[in-house]
Each structure stands twice: as structure tokens, then as C-alpha cells.
Amino acid sequence: MSDDIPEPDRIEGAPHPRNTHHLIGQTGADAEFLRAFNGGRLHHGWLMTGPRGVGKATLAWRIARFLLATPENDGGMFAPPPPDSLDIPDSHPVARRLSALSEPRLFLLRRPYDEKAARLKQDITVDEVRKMKSFFALSAADGGRRVAIIDAVDDMNTSAANALLKLLEEPPSGVTLLLISHQPARLLPTIRSRCRELRLGPLSPENLSDALTQAGGDVAPEDRVALAELAGGSVGEAFRMTNLDGLKLYQTLINLFSTLPRLDRPRALALAEAGAGKGAGPQFELIVTLLDLFLARLARAGTLGYLPPEAAKGEGDLIARLSPHPQAARVWADVAQHLGIRARRGKAVNLDPAALLMDMVLQIDATAGTLAQR
């Protein structure tokens, strides 16, 4: 595809999952698929679930390479031994064709590009699912396995989801459907029930660091725990954090909130201005995300009665002071429920980003002051 057209299933600045051959930190899901394959229990639909950026798409492409490059076992005397890995060499013709998106036995279903509007469409439509069904019908004469990757099934509108359900109910012969979902609870229950689920969890700090390095990013060893805490074990989120200097920004937030409940307003205003202005959209979103995360960490620590690993210097003492008991935690949880949502909605209708961020900070300051008086 043209380099000018964005890919909806790719993190900006990182390689596409089809070019990431080594899956880090998800050996359980990897081994589960291999056991099913070797045991003759290859289901026609596989649903890969878990948070964004933990390797679901990488696993889907890894499975696709494996299925399309591994000869079918005819059960004869000279049949090869069962494979002990999903690894396929980069030099294999199938691997090269998948990397170039030229493999004739693979269909990639994702949000299409709207040429007239010059942007990606918001949804996967029923027309795209129909193209996939036609692809299976036309390629049936080729024989062998065929694979479809749907990234992400969450992006389907209602009509597309219903069309996919019919395909899962009556799957074409030799076809394996690999569905990627970041929020499986929102899927049609009938879609989930007709797939075998592979669950991928958040990555450990060490695995996250290794995966980030593989994707072309980098993280200092002393920052591994902090980045894993802020990114939730997600390589995609860690990539965004490192690209936008998220660790430094979170330290700025902690330093600012250390002045609560007597907020240092000049520093607060400087933070708000950093998320405003032309081209500051990603910075605005990151600041809101970090504020949401800080509130969630306050609520969780007060509820559970123990502090999380520090994501910034001084964070532990600050959380212990602001959320010392479950009653305070409930207050912070209530604030967390609406603050970030309100800021994002305000940004969507073109309200002043600096004012929206300043309002969030002032609300947090006011809450800290109320709790201090109790």
C-alpha cells in the first residue's frame, strides 16, 4: 500500500505487527494455539483479547505465517513431525509475501481509507465483510489453508458484525479467522461463543522494555518499572509515552500535585499551556491520560491499602498523603469518573484546551482541599 496512506492497525513510528516476528511475553497464548494445532483441534475462529498494545496483532500475524507456511499433514508414513514452535524464518516466501501484503491466501480486514475524504473511515462496514466473503469464494479453488485477520473486530458497525457472525456460523472450508479485540465485552455474545479465545495480559517491566526495543524504541533500565506502571504493560502505550516524553511529564505532574492543597498556580498554568496551541493535540491527550491515571492510582491505593511501585519520584509519599484510607479513595474515584471524559468532550467541541486542563487541575486541587479539612 502507499506510504502516504495511514494504517489503522499500526502504532505511529513503530513497525507494523506483520513485520514483528518475535512475540515477547505471551508464551502462554502462543503455546495454547500450538497445542490446539498439534492436537488436531484447529478451530475456525480465534479471538485474541487483551489491552491495546500487548501483542495481539503480532500473535495474529505470527499464526497467519505459521498456518500458511506449514504444509498440511496428510497422515502418511513420511509426514513431518509435529512442529514445536510457531516460528517461520523471515526468508520464507510466505513471510516475505505477508510483509509485502501480497500473500494471495490472506485477507486483511481493517478500517478502510476514504479516498474522497482523505482519511480513514471510522468503522469497518458490511461492504468490507462482503469483500472478505467474496475473497474466500474466489480463492477456494486454490486449495490449502486460507486466513483472515480482522484488526480490530471492535471497529465493526452493527451490520458488519452481523455479517461476520454468519461467516462464523458457516465457515468456508480451510479458512481460519483471526479476530483481534481490545474490548471483547462489547462484542456480540454470539461472536465470542463461536470463537476460541486467546487471552494476552499486560507485559512485565522487563518484557515491556524488550518489546519496546524490538519496536525501535528504547528505555533506560532504571525507567522500566515506571514506564510499565504508566503504560499498563502495553507496548503501544509505552511507545506513545516515550515519543511524547511521558515519564518526564508525569514527574512534572507529581511535582505540581505535591503542592496540594495549596496549588502552585503558575506551574499549573504552564502545564495547561503545554497541552494547548497548534499541533498540541497529542500532548493534550497525554496530559489528560496521565491525570486520569494519577486519579486511578489514588483511588486504588486508598482502597487496597498499599502503594503501587512509584512511576515518579515522590509519588508514593504523595499518594499516601492524598488517599490514606478507603473513604478518600471513594472521593477520588468519583472525581476520576467524570473529569477526563468532560475534558475530552470539551476538546471535541473546540473549547480552549488550556482552560480544560486548568479546570481538571483545579478540580483535583479543590478535592484535595476538601479532604484535608475532614
Helices and strands in order:
Elements: H1 27-38, E1 45-49, H2 56-69, H3 93-99, E2 106-109, E3 113-114, E4 119-120, H4 126-139, E5 146-151, H5 158-169, E6 175-181, H6 189-193, E7 196-199, H7 205-214, H8 224-231, H9 235-243, H10 246-257, H11 265-274, H12 281-304, H13 315-322, H14 326-348, H15 353-372
Parallel strand pairs: 1-6, 1-7, 2-5, 5-6
Antiparallel strand pairs: 3-4
In short, what is this structure?
The chain is of the alpha/beta class and 374 residues long. It has 15 helices and seven strands.
Q: Mind explaining what this structure looks like?
A:
This protein is α/β, with parallel strands linked by helices and 374 residues long. The chain folds into two domains: 17-199, Rossmann fold; 244-372. Helices cover 50% and strands 8% of the residues. The chain is built from 15 helices and seven strands. The chain has helices at 27-38, 56-69, 93-99, 126-139, 158-169, 189-193, 205-214, 224-231, 235-243, 246-257, 265-274, 281-304, 315-322, 326-348, 353-372; strands at 45-49, 106-109, 113-114, 119-120, 146-151, 175-181, 196-199. The strands form two sheets. It has a five-stranded parallel sheet with strand order 2-5-6-1-7, sandwiched between helices. The chain has a two-stranded antiparallel ribbon with strand order 3-4.
